[in-house]
Amino acid sequence: MKRLQFMLTRLAQGIVAILAIATVNFLLVHAAPGDPASVMAGEAGNADPQFVAQLRHHFGLDLPLGTQLVIYLKHIVHLDLGYSYRQQLPVVNLIMQRLPATLLLTGSAFILSLIFGVALGAWSSRKVGTWVDSAISVVGLVFYATPLYWLAMMAVLLFSIKLNWLPGFGYFTVGANLSGLARAWDILQHLVLPSLTLALFYMAVYARMTRASMQEVAQMDFVKTARAKGLRPLRIERAHILRNALLPVVTLAGIQAGGMIGGAVLTETVFAWPGIGRLMFDALLERDYTVLLGCFLVASAMAVILNLVTDLLYTLVDPRIELS
Question: What is the pTM of this model?
Answer without folding.
Answer: 0.82
